[in-house]
Amino acid sequence: MVLMVTGSVFSIKAQTIEEGKKFYYYERFKSAKEVFQKLLNTNPNNEEAVYWLGQCIIAPDDHTAKDIAEVKSLYQSKLSVSNSQLLMAGIGHVELLEGKTADARNHFAAAIELSQSKNIAVLSAIGFANSNPDVKEGDAAYAIEKLKMATLLKKFNDPDVYVNLGDAYRKLGDGGNAILSYQAALGLNPKYARTNFRMGKLYQSQGRGQESIFMEYYDKAIADDPAYAPVYANLFNYFYETNVTRAAEYFEKWQANSDTDYKSCYYRAALKYAQGFFMDAISMSDACINESAGNPYANLYGLKANAYNRLKDSTNAIANYELYFQKQMPEKITAGDYFEYAKNLLKIPGNESKVGAIIGKAVILDSIESNKVQYLRAVAQIFETRKSFLEAADFYSKIISVKKTPSKYDLDICALNYYKAGAFQQSIDMFKLSSEKFPNDPFVYNFIGKASSAIDTTMQLGMANEAFEKTIQFAITDSIKYKPQLLTAYRYFVAYYFNIKKDKETTLMYIEKILTLEPNDAEALGNKKILTAPAKKPATDTKSKPTPAKKP
After folding, report:
1. Which of 418, 439, 460 lies at the terminal end of a domain, its last residue?
2. CB-based burial label for 488 (10 Å; 0-12, 13-18, 19+)
3. Which residues have C-beta within 8 Å of that of residue 236, sequence separation ≥ 6?
4. How far is the C-alpha of 236 from the C-alpha of 245, rounded, in Å?
5. Is residue 6 very low, low, confident or very high in pLDDT (cuts 50, 70, 90)?
6. CB count, 10 Å around CB of 541?
7. Which among 138, 173, 189 is the end of a domain?
8. pTM of structure
9. Contact call for residues 497 and 503 (beta carbons, < 8 A)
10. Based on the domain organization, do 450 and 427 belong to the same domain?
11. What is the pLDDT of residues 77-98, one digit of tens each?
12. Is the Cβ–Cβ distance between 284 and 318 less than 8 Å?
């Protein structure tokens, strides 16, 4: 919730409150906190100052669980000596951040009941808590209901309520009503910069194809109020990876209209990184850390890790990723952070055992299937390149577990790596799964046969028979394309029928099949000659046995 910025004249007390709220509006939270804290030093029971001080603490996107607990304690301590409906709404906001939706709803209901549904500030606070994009547990439909109630009250003229209403509709995915609400805010105050900013954010969320539209809204917001820093911050982040020159321009405007805080140093180092000056980014980050009085911004370690990563210095990249993980709030660590850390671990021998758990964290954190697959496939391919086939196969199997509909390639590449690793039963199981979902492929049955033969080395169990029979069944339709698979199957059956079944006639049949495909096959010709030679006396028959065909 943000105040309506106007040129109205206030009383001494209200003027001070409005000054703090105006700093809040511009997202100058440090300055706003100072104003509200001074008010509380004068009057510890000023409920508005208490409420807004708490909002300043939890408003930044890097607020911590400790910050949430601090604000809850602040609100509760003042509620114990008053019956403030505004602070009840504030408590509900905090409880949403804690994930306690039922408790939050009870506090919201109590605040509304005590105020008899006639307090615009209370309804606005409740609506903001639930419509806020950063409050995941907020109920957008509930926010819409309460914010609409506020717009119907006597003397209502706050454009911010309509902006929050627009955010609530956007949270529900109703872009049409979101735009109508934002436009209603402009009807109350055409120069209210936050309104055009939020409309720009809505169009920006639809992708880069909307750039001309959302930039028009951002330009309007800047024209209406050049001091509105959130627009510059957003544009800095937007252009950071695509147009570093423009990003730098917006960064300077952002900083010129913001409070100087611990993040400013980080962002200047980040700009060096974006410009490709990785050593400068590292040295500037070190300077920021040294100036932090023992409490550095955790993102600085992440920035250093990324810079060392780009410099292909895996040792220092790993060290800084680990420091980043130690110092960063768990909820701020991304799947991409773990992925880059894992890739660097694999560049240094001896770290392989850590990678599975790290990539597992990335997979859990990322909600997009294609990203999960990307993380797992990249690591699988690294192991495959190193001929660490068992590890590669295990990662390929994880791809199969995360994909709703694994492809034939997913199944076959996993099975093939198990085969190369000598994990023949796992290879068979995976190839069989492939054959069930994608039948009639001689390649698959051929490998099932080869893996089965590797287990049943004496052929006594005939484990490979069915697979090689199916290989022949499906490969015979294109003997040129599937010639290698057919030869493998035929050679297997030459050995099987000669050595196990003692069936000369069937053995010769398979020899002929080999010669049909390879007329000059020396082994097949030699075996045929022996098997078709006139019988000799047993005493002189020591060299008459055909050369057993090599097992596939």
Report:
1. 439
2. buried
3. 247, 250, 251, 254, 267
4. 10
5. very low
6. 10
7. 189
8. 0.73
9. yes
10. no
11. 999 888 899 999 999 999 999 9
12. no
